[in-house]
Write a structure and sequence with these properties.
The complex is a heterodimer.
Chain A (H helix, E strand, L loop, with lengths): L3 H8 L17 H27 L1 H8 L4 H26 L5 H29 L8 H31 L6 H30 L2
Helix pairs in contact in A: 2-6, 2-7, 4-5, 4-7, 5-6, 6-7
Chain B lengths: L3 H5 L2 H21 L6 H23 L7 H23 L3
Helix pairs in contact in B: 2-3, 3-4
The chains are: A mainly alpha, B mainly alpha.
Amino acid sequence: MATLEDATRRQNGGEPITRERVRHLPGELGTWVFILGDMTVFALLFGIFMYYRDKQPALFAHSQLTLHKSFGVINTLLLLTSSLCVVTAVRAVRKGAQRLPTILLGVAVVCGLGFTLNKFLEWGGLLSHHHYPDTNNFYMYFFVLTGIHFFHLLLGMGVLTALIVLSRKPSLSEKEMMFFEGGACFWHMVDLLWIVLFALLYLVH
Amino acid sequence: MAALPGLLRSRITVVWLFLIAATITSLLLGTDNLVSGVKLASALVIVVAFVKVRFVGMYFMEIGNAPVPLRAIFQGYCAVVCTVLVVMLLTSH
C-alpha cells in the first residue's frame, strides 16, 4: 500500500524524510493542469454572467426570484459532505484501511446521486413553469452554467466509481495512488465550482 | 487498521463544519437583511464563497501541503477571481 510517506520520499529524490515539512503534490501534474484549466474556463463564465447581469439587472433580478434557494443549499451541503467523505477516504487509504475507503466513496456517490435528483427536480420545476433556456438571458446562463457543472458532476461520479474499484485492491502501486489522489481532487473541484455558482446564481442580488 | 472516528477527529472535520456554517451565513446574507445595503450583502456573499473555495482547496484538495507554485497559483486564482467579481458587482447598475 503506497503511503504519504512513500510519496513524499519519492518527491524527496528517495532521500529519507527530514523533520522539515515535506511538500507533496496530490495526484499527477497533468491532473492539475486539467483542473486549473477547467477552473479558469469557469472563472471566465462567472465573469461573463456578471457582465450580462449588469446589462439587464431588472430581468436578472426578477428571473432569480423564480429559483428556489433550497435546491441550491441542499446541493451545496451534499457536495460538501461528499468532499469530506472523499478526503477521509484518501486518508484512510494512506493508513492502509481496507473497507472504510470503499464505504466512504460509496457515500460520496450517494451524495452525487442526491445532487442529480435535486437538479432534475429543479430543472423540471422551472421547465414546467415555462422557464426555458431561450426564455431570457438569465435562464440561458442558468441552464448553461448548471448544465456544464452537472456534466462535470457526472464525470466526477464516474471517477469516484473508478476509485471505489481501486479502493477494493489490497494494495495500491505508486501510480494507482497518484490516480486516487488526482481523482479525489477532481471531485473537490466539482464541489468548489458549485460553491461559486450557488453564490452567483441564487444569492447575489 | 484506520478507524472512522479516529480519521474524523481531525482538522478536516472542523473545516467541514466551518464550510457548513459559511453556507448558512451566505444564505442569510442572500435572503435576509443581515447587512444594510443589497450590494454590500451580495459582495459579502461572493467573498464568503471564495473563502469557502480556498478552504476546500487548501484542506480537502491538500493544496496547503502542496509545492509552493501550486499553492501560489490556487491562492492567486481565489484572490483575482473574487476581486474581479466583487468589483463587477459594486460597479454594476
